[in-house]
Structure to design on (428 residues):
């Protein structure tokens, strides 16, 4: 397994401008392997350098799906769970102040929900949410963690004197059993653009099996957002792609001259591979609000109490993106999410709390935003509206990664419509 030396979560402690510079540098130096963890880490992790394990959940290429279509548990464990077993990785999440403050406030400002209640923490990691639930007055907390991080959680929980309340259970939520149904399910399950990692599945599974009919979900709601954006990354990625193809040309020549083999029949598959890697894979970025050039729209809302597996496994949405006046170029789309802690309809929160991962100058999160670049960018005129449909499904080879299809068309103020464009992307 590849362990990240400079995981991007750690960069929370680096100033925002340094983070940007580092991100850009690293995006420029990683080799285009086209496969494996290195590719995932480079493209999506933004800051992590080539060969480093990608960040949140780390699904590597290589497939977590078994031949029959079900999840291959061993591969899933090796590809997805592996990094969550490292303290450095948990520390990066624990250092995300926006994330931490939101969960902390949601629990302690709504302590009435926890007082004397039973709680299930799905994916307890270090045990932080379970500890807070106990400190807020829970009678019993079941803290379930699939990886050996469960052992660290156990000692952290004992070290904070709540081991008489919190019981750590090492195992996947799908495989374990607890002796009773619970009043609250708490979990931090959100991946990039909300759905990457597919961990919400496990929370839904836990809810359907272990939550009392009167139970409450923490968080209770989640939303996915999309907005039009501008960025110089379009040129940057185009240049990288052109360099890579020029290098392929030299390689063909050298191989022919020195080794007498004509490799040109591989040119098309190579180009396809590089196109996917440089131009079609969405990127992690921490955008400034002024890079958003139109009104963000909510493309999907989930009520965590009622959402089904089917609803999360494929997200389809049609929407219109209006632009702020004065922008002449659309470089792509930014995607992010927020979650809310509102309690339940029968037992609403005293204090609703929001955790947002929207572009911000100071309230940045380790999730950042996912950027989907347009190659080439679209020329805009004032009054244009982009009519879009978005289709997010799970990757055929790895259910924790996503395939995205954007279909879009400009509607001019004059009523004229440009041809429909279909752009495929991959969230890796
Ligand atoms: C994003 S981390 C959150 C950790 C901790 N709750 C926090 O907020 O800092 C998600 C954790 O859930 C665990 N996890 C993911 N899916 C799980 C499953 N199906 N069963 C048990 N644990 C799971 C991962 O190993 C990881 O430690």
């Amino acid at each position: 397994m590849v362990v990240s030396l400079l995981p991007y979560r750690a960069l929370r402690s680096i100033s925002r401008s340094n983070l940007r510079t580092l991100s850009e540098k690293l995006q420029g130096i990683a080799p285009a392997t086209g496969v494996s963890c290195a590719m995932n880490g480079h493209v999506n992790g933004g800051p992590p350098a080539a060969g480093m394990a990608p960040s949140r959940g780390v699904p590597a290429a290589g497939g977590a799906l078994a031949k029959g279509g079900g999840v291959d548990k061993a591969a899933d464990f090796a590809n997805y769970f592996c990094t969550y077993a490292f303290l450095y990785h948990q520390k990066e999440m624990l250092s995300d102040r926006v994330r931490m403050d939101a969960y902390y406030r949601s629990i302690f400002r709504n302590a009435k929900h926890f007082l004397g209640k039973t709680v299930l923490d799905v994916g307890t990691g270090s045990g932080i949410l379970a500890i807070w639930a106990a400190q807020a007055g829970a009678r019993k907390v079941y803290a379930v963690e699939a990886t050996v991080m469960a052992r660290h959680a156990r000692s952290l929980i004992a070290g904070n004197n709540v081991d008489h309340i919190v019981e750590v259970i090492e195992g996947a939520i799908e495989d374990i059993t607890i002796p009773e149904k619970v009043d609250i399910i708490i979990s931090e399950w959100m991946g990039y653009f909300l759905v990457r990692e597919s961990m919400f599945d496990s929370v839904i599974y836990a809810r359907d099996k272990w939550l009392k009919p009167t139970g409450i979900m923490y968080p209770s709601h989640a939303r996915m957002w999309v907005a039009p954006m501008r960025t110089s990354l379009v040129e940057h990625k185009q240049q990288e792609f052109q360099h890579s193809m020029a290098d392929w040309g030299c390689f063909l020549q050298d191989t022919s001259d020195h080794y007498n083999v004509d490799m040109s029949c591989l040119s098309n598959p190579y180009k396809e591979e590089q196109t996917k890697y440089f131009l079609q894979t969405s990127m992690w970025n921490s955008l400034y609000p002024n890079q958003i050039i139109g009104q963000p729209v909510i493309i999907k809302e989930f009520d965590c109490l009622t959402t089904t597996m089917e609803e999360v496994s494929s997200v389809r949405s049609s929407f219109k993106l209006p632009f702020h006046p004065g922008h002449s170029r659309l470089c792509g789309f930014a995607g992010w999410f927020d979650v809310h802690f509102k309690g339940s309809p029968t037992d609403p929160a005293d204090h609703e709390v929001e955790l947002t991962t929207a572009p911000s100058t100071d309230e940045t999160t380790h999730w950042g935003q996912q950027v989907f670049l347009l190659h080439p960018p679209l020329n805009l005129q004032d009054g244009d509206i982009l009519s879009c449909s978005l289709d997010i499904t799970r990757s055929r080879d790895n259910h924790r990664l996503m395939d995205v299809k954007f279909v879009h068309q400009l509607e001019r103020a004059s009523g004229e419509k440009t041809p429909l464009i279909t752009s495929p992307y991959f969230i890796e």
